[in-house]
């Protein structure tokens, strides 16, 4: 489950362990196997729209026993080498994670993120776990509850245990992209037939896996096939927004490291095509759409309620009509409004409004402005002119962006977080909105997007430093929003992942 879920949100790598260890023989699987370690190789493939599979990398897992302070530890090292594109940029998920277990319980995990320059260490406490994190701009610690977390080695054993049809089981693992424990529910689903390269018909047992809801959203499900005789895992398949259907196939080291084929473009694979262009959509007062889904789901479970949305449910439960209205300025002659909750003013991990450089930028960008709306618009415009848009960063914090010696750069997520932080530094309540935006280069489509919302006179108004238009129009379809308070992972992105994962079709109706 974790092998592919990690690719849906974030990309992590890990530094080597620093402790002193000495290897001892790996437990024999049979009378002949007395090796000290076991290495498993998986070739990674993705499935395009035509149904063709293309290799885009491999995963290596090594299991071994070590002794530390007289205690036997099972250590599993998993190394990812997955290549993808994002527009014209090619990047590698070169994640390396190490889990250490004692008596079937996770006692330690180390990893780093090469893209976001984050280092983490998970350590077992008498009750619960301590998560220590280092970034270029801050160090912090979090704690999670006393979950029965398992590492890679125990997870493999759980999946390989003999079971009967319809049997159910569950386990917990730590998901670094979410900074949280995730419960996985498993079910024995029967047997499927496969054809070997030699033409033989193979019958493997399928195990269906479903992670429990995260932030109220179900993550993508996965299926694993095992040989019913040897109980060896043969392949794993999971649908990943941005990649499509990804499959790990157990193979030899040479085959796993063979040349890759066509690489998945995570940007193109998440775009929602439109059949027509809409001229000047971001300047229009409103726009109506028909959204059609592959599977029935209530609009309220898909889109967070918004004062700018009007939804009409259709009878088939597979489609609904959505009208999005533009709000260009604060309400006039508004009655005294309730103040925004503190979470929209507090500095937090991603929206680091107390950072000295963020404060400096906010003062520079809003200089000469008096009221909050004028300040916010000025900061949006300033960022649009002074921010360099690149696709090589992944969810850097506002402080990381502001303190980058190479200048302000990133994509929509970085500039939205930075604008929110600059607004909070000026005492303006803010949050980020997450959804999709209309674009027509080269063809009309909706694409994943993040922008900023500020609270003025009891109303939330949108600003988008990516466009720099001074307001947000009906070309933005909002799925959710987040203050990011107390958030170290990517849980707030789950609703838009669900939206895109439902493979919606969007039809423009009228303005």
UniProtKB/TrEMBL annotation:
InterPro entries for this protein: Papain-like_cys_pep_sf (IPR038765), Transglutaminase-like (IPR002931)
Cross-referenced Pfam families: Transglut_core
Gene3D superfamilies per record: 3.10.620.30
Domain of life according to the entry: Bacteria
SMART domains: TGc (SM00460)
Transglutaminase-like domain: residues covered: 406-467
SUPFAM superfamilies per the UniProt record, alphabetical: Cysteine proteinases
Name of the protein in question: Transglutaminase family protein
Organism: Telmatocola sphagniphila
